[in-house]
Amino acid sequence: MMSSKKKTTKSEKKSYRNLLIVESPSKAKTINKYLGSDYKVMATVGHVIDLPKNKLGVDLENEYEPLFETIYGKGKILKDLKKSIPKDGSVFLAMDPDREGEAIAWHVANELKLENAKRVSFHEITKTAIEEAIANPTVVNINLVDAQKARRVLDRLVGYKLSELIWKKIWYGLSAGRVQSVALRLIVEKEEEREAFLSEEYWDVSVKLKEDNGKILTAKLSKKEGKKYVPKSKDEVEDFEAKMGDSKFRVKDVVKRDVKKHAYPPFTTSTMQQSAYNALGYTSKKTMGLAQILYQAGYITYMRTDSVFLSGKAVEEIRYLVSSRFGKEYVPEKPNYYKNKSKNAQEAHEAIRPTDFNLDIKLVQKDLGVAAAKLYEMIWKRTVSSQMAEKRVQVLTVSLVPRQPSSPEYIFTMGGEITMFDGFRKVLGTKELEDDLQEISQITKGDELEKVEFVNEQKFTLPPARYTEASLIKKLEELGIGRPSTYSTIISTIQGRGYVEREARSLFPTDVGRIVTNFLRNSFDRLMDYAYTAKVEDELDGIALGKKKYVPVIDREYKMLQEGINIAQESVKKEDVVILGESEEKCPECGSGTVIRVGRYGKFLSCNRFPECKGMKDLEGKEDTLDYNKYFKPEECPLCKSKLVLKNGKYGKFWACEKYPTCKGLVPLLLNEKCPECGHHLVERKGKWGRSFTGCSNYPNCKYIKKVKKSKAKKDSES
Asked: Could you tell me the fold of the domain covering 13-140?
């Protein structure tokens, strides 16, 4: 019996004439909707080659040539791409319009041995943009490729070589990076600034006043003899009140000012991350992930940009939308123009904006979910409002003095603003607190108001606020450190390494983060300098623009790095690196002074005569949070019989000898339950895929695993 399956011929397999390659399957799916049967769209799924994971991967003797290799799992993708190359058609390389995208295009062309591949780029995934890009192909920009190569190689050299040194001088497993370490320094120095801060007393003084109609108004003490004044003590307040005398206050002056407030520019990568964090509570990582999804779905333009430029077509569409939806008065006479802050921003690249301003946000939500829809709405509002008229307000300030003249003269003020025209705020909304000034708008110069009472509140100056993700990104951008597209990775890295922790929204350094920063500041001051790091970014930009060459830039940086490493190797002692500061306690062994050191498992006191004296005291052991009904408490160290203390490690709590680092005895956190097969304690573990289970602590000698009975409710939910 013959098979019913029809054999597919070679010509039928390749019915298309053109192959278009992108880096993302989602992007490929969207583009595929706009291209006909003449095109096949395939994805590389990111980079196809990269530096090796477990070695330097840079040929130091051959002009710092990167030793790229095929990324694990990408061999099959490259093989499939090669098979899909049309014999008589064209291959289009449609990776993202930035250095990373250009590098992927270059590597794909080399791996597939494409001699006549066409480079196409577009900043939005729409039918018009794609067709226009295909109609106007270019070639791979080798300057951009070299710039990406330079960044990758420089980051590898610094990260690999410095991390290697840190392993020797602190402990294994720590890392450093060209940009991540400088970002960490910002957080550490902010914490040092907070610790050095001395709080000062001050007083808020205001007076409650009554109008003839019985209305109560409040004015705040603001000036003394025409200069800004804030009382510093209760004595000052009492002295001032004693001088007031008369119970009436006279209006000295009424000032009305018309103020125009301009719209904000459309989003760049940096400002989008900041606004999403402040308004939506999204981390930079989450924001960039959602923006990537929105872009690949065709809803917004490319999300990695430092340009505030909007195309003429986009501006025209916005102005028409604003006029028809809100009225002609909301459209400025001329389009709003914004100057790029970044000196290397490319005008050809647009700001982040919607591709269709009339798109119903409900469609975005249905397609991509609530989180993506909220980000899209924020981008839409910011873009549309950027091309709207100014907000006009009237600012009113009323100055009052005691009716009975005093020496010195004390001035009280009250006021606020009234919105005359909401302008761009019609779309953007407002969080501004606008006082209702109807009561004071009728007040005129010379009016008198009766004093009801003084209200005094003691306060104290606060230390500078810690960085949030938003404020850290803003600071990095101000200093020219890193690039907006890298901020998310930087922040994730320093948290993932255990250098920084989060408290509410604030970022603060851990002890390990401080130790690493102190070491790098002391030994690599040039590398950790903010201005110098920004200068290196400019050099990388220079390579991208064809003004700088790859080899001289890398050669200079590497030689300076290696010189610093050589000096640190000889001059820095490990025992001096891990010192956080001095302690007032005496050494329990010899009575000398002590210092606070940081070990792999936390802080401890150590004799300042170490290694001559090895006296120490643990500072981290805390048992009060452990449930001893569930967990077993071991009596002594298995190596030296000393007391054990509870520690927090990378993989959770464990017991460690109190004499660490002299003794490195360890006991895992055991359950108060014995193995039914061998009698050893059971222990909580995690499997290969992150799933928790309870097994015998005597593994691999005993392979007992406790079976967990599923509740009926859980079974029902899974079915």
From this structure: Rossmann fold (3.40.50)
